[in-house]
Design a protein that fits this description.
The complex is a heterodimer. By secondary structure, chain A is mainly alpha-helical. The longest helix of chain A is centred in the last third of the chain and has 45 residues, at 128-172. Chain A has helices at 3-19, 27-30, 33-45, 47-63, 71-90, 95-118, 128-172. The termini of chain A are far apart. Chain A has a single domain (3-142), classed as Arp2/3 complex 21 kDa subunit ARPC3, CATH 1.10.1760. By secondary structure, chain B is of the alpha+beta class. Chain B contains three helices and 14 strands. Chain B has helices at residues 2-26, 34-65, 68-103; strands spanning 107-111, 114-123, 131-134, 147-149, 154-161, 167-171, 178-183, 189-194, 201-204, 217-220, 232-240, 248-253, 262-268, 271-276. In chain B, the strands form three sheets. In chain B, strands 2-3-6-5-4-13 form a six-stranded antiparallel β-barrel. In chain B, strands 7-8-9-12-11-10 form a six-stranded antiparallel β-barrel. A two-stranded antiparallel sheet of chain B has the order 1-14. The longest helix of chain B has 36 residues, at 68-103. Chain B is globular and about 80 Å long. The chains are: A mainly alpha, B alpha+beta. At the A-B interface, helix 1, helix 2, helix 4 and helix 5 of A face helix 1, helix 2 and strand 2 of B.
Chain lengths: 173, 279
């Protein structure tokens, strides 16, 4: 993933989070698309990419929300670095990557609620339902994105071959 | 090794920057920063476009699924109904006010509040707060702490204006939101607080000695200086004797907070003119 495509993914996640997610009942509570982008970037490209994606994504998300500017930036920066470093130490893909996404998602929500408690502003109540539920949905979205990314080259190749076969068949006829 | 150490310093610097940024805001007056205004300014264009496309797709689908003519008529009727319901709320508030004041042999005339209609273009970017972005800002005389109402009652208040064409509103169901409220039947006053649950509000500071029953209508009291008096907030769904001085009251909001598309911002709060009678 190039820096440009990461930026595009962050932008798409922010726009979708603020406009499309609320279409689904309870959707705005259940998923954090920016966090999904941060964690996928961190687990795919390492802690440095996680750091910058987390900082930029978190700060933009803070600016578009009713919270304190910097809290999301701080928690997503830490989540990105920890997830990236965790992935490097595990050295795995697939399920292991999803496990890191799940753990980092849980940690991010708890850290977010903790920072709000520290600054004495009412933030999210870190109930087990919210923390685990959101982590499960985030991980499911990450799994879908990973599956889509894996299937994409094969799909493009198949379409190209079918087109080529159709063209040759037309010439032969 | 040296590279790891350098990366560690970068992480530390970024974390420190965030901590300083948060610290600067903790005891400061909540105002939109330049960064927020610019970000929302840029994003509101895209969000407005995506929301319009989303609504357009939804409308096409809806029109396709139903009878097109009936659907169009229904939209027009609903629009009329919404404005009439807002008018009705205002008239109702006026009537109550008048009845009470007449009893005190005072005659008071109220001027209808001046409002600006706004379209919701985005919801909160995080899953943790209940805010909306609307497509009206400073250019339309929208400013912080103005009340926002919908066809069914109180929606929330403006927290930040984000440039000329956008503002952020905090919904009444946000855990940091509150409004002065009255039990309409008994005039028992209290404070309605958001619980983060879109289908439930809490009403605090109503004395255990006051008469409150399930089904009682809760309206704004005007005591907070933001929400005009008499607008519906919801109705009581649960009431119990509290352990301290106050009752435990749950209120179901009058507004369906998950389906807000258009709102009215009260840009000029109700003007009151005393014509006769003394206070």
């Amino acid at each position: 993933m190039s820096p440009l495509s990461i930026a595009a993914a962050l932008l798409a996640a922010l726009v979708a989070q603020t406009t499309l997610v609320s279409v689904f009942p309870g959707g705005d509570r259940a998923v954090d698309l920016v966090l999904v982008v941060v964690l996928l970037t961190a687990t795919g490209r390492g802690p440095a990419a996680g750091l910058w994606t987390g900082t930029v994504g978190g700060l933009l998300q803070d600016a578009l929300s009713g919270g304190v500017l910097g809290v999301g930036g701080l928690t997503k920066t830490v989540a990105g670095v920890v997830a990236g470093a965790g992935m490097q130490s595990i050295l795995g893909t697939g399920w292991r990557r999803l496990a890191v996404v799940f753990a980092a998602s849980v940690g991010n929500t708890l850290f977010y609620a903790g920072v709000y408690a520290l600054v004495n502003v009412q933030g999210p109540a870190a109930t087990a339902t919210l923390v685990v539920g959101q982590a499960l949905v985030n991980t499911s979205v990450a799994a879908l994105v990973m599956g889509g990314a894996q299937a994409w080259p094969g799909l493009v190749d198949r379409v190209r071959r079918r087109r080529q076969a159709g063209r040759h068949g037309w010439k032969a006829a | 090794m040296e590279r790891d150490q350098r990366f560690g310093y970068v992480v530390l610097s970024v974390v420190l920057m965030h901590v300083l940024l948060i610290s600067a805001q903790v005891n400061a007056k909540p105002e939109a920063t330049v960064f927020q205004a610019v970000t929302v300014g840029v994003f509101s264009e895209i969000q407005g476009w995506v929301t319009a496309t989303r609504d357009g797709v939804a409308a096409v689908w809806s029109a396709y699924a139903g009878l097109r003519r009936v659907h169009t008529e229904n939209i027009a009727l609903n629009r009329d109904l919404s404005s009439l319901r807002v008018e009705l709320q205002h008239q109702r508030a006026l009537a109550q006010q008048t009845r009470r004041l007449e009893r005190l042999l005072a005659l008071r005339e109220r001027v209808a509040p001046s409002t600006v209609g706004a379209r919701v273009i985005a919801s909160d970017a995080t899953p943790y707060f209940r805010t909306l972005t609307i497509d009206r800002g400073v250019n339309d005389a929208v400013r912080p702490d103005l009340a926002v109402i919908g066809a069914d009652g109180v929606v929330g208040r403006v927290t930040h204006t984000l440039g000329g064409e956008a503002a952020q509103i905090q919904l009444l169901v946000d855990r940091n939101a509150a409004a002065g409220a009255l039990i309409e039947r008994t005039r028992a006053s209290g404070v309605v607080l958001g619980t983060d649950d879109v289908s439930m509000l809490r009403m605090d500071y109503v004395s255990n000695l006051k008469d409150v029953v399930v089904g009682d209508r809760v309206v704004s009291s005007g005591s907070d200086g933001i929400y005009p008096k008499g607008f519906p907030i919801g109705h009581v769904t649960h009431v119990a004797q509290g352990v301290g001085l106050y009752r435990v009251i749950e209120v179901e909001p009058a507004v369906e907070f998950t389906e807000i598309e258009e709102v009215l911002v009260i840009v000029d709060p109700v003007a009151e003119v005393v014509e006769a009678g003394g206070e």
